[in-house]
Amino acid sequence: MSNKIALGGGCHWCTEAVFQSLIGVSKVEQGFVASTGDNNTFSEAVIVHFNAEDISLKTLIEIHLYTHKSTSNHSMRTKYRSAVYTFSNTQKNEVDDIISAFQNEFENKLITKTFPFNNFKVSSEQIQNYYYNNPEKPFCETFINPKLKVLLNQFSNYANQNKLKHLKNEQHQTEYSK
Q1: What is the domain-level CATH number for residue 55?
Q2: 173 occurs within a structural domain
Q3: How many whole angstroms separate alpha carbon 94 and alpha carbon 57?
Q4: Mind telling me the catalytic residues?
Q5: Which residues lie closer than 8 Å to 97 by C-beta, 6 or more apart?
Q6: In this predicted structure, what is the pLDDT of residue 171?
Q7: What are the backbone angles phi and psi of residue 51, rounded to the nearest 5°?
Q8: Mean pLDDT, consecutive 10-residue segments, the chain of 178 residues?
Q9: For residues 85 and 100, what is the distance between their CA atoms, to the nearest angstrom?
Q10: Which helix (DSSP H) or strand (DSSP E) does residue 7 occupy?
Q11: Does 177 reside within a domain?
């Protein structure tokens, strides 16, 4: 059964690559998500389509919290909103509970918010699948590879080892949010 959740945190190239690299994720749509009310402006994000039998919503949220600066309220938070966009009230309540439960794993307060999904604009085709089309670009090596190494180091049971085999020989561990 296919489910979906929208996630925003940092650059959507980074977020797209992280979730494309997971077992149980069938599709990642890269673009811009808007919510409602004060958060109705578009912010970089992805929509993740997943099979809950292979990877749970809880695991996806945990990976999201650990692969972007989920405790940092920096100046670019309008463009890079730290958020989970939900598709129902039931899903919103579940996500709120999940984020609350993970708070004790982080030294600083999680700033990741839960918002209702309202609208999506897909990225231009030329920048979709950015990492896997350009893994040797300096941006990918500098900003995306460390996040993918978090998958290998902390979430190896869910990481698609075949997609990440080019990183296995590198001995570097990065933690973003602690």
Answers
A1: 3.30.1060.10
A2: no
A3: 9
A4: 11
A5: none
A6: 44
A7: -100, 110
A8: 89 94 97 93 96 97 95 75 96 98 96 96 94 94 94 96 83 45
A9: 16
A10: strand 2-8
A11: no
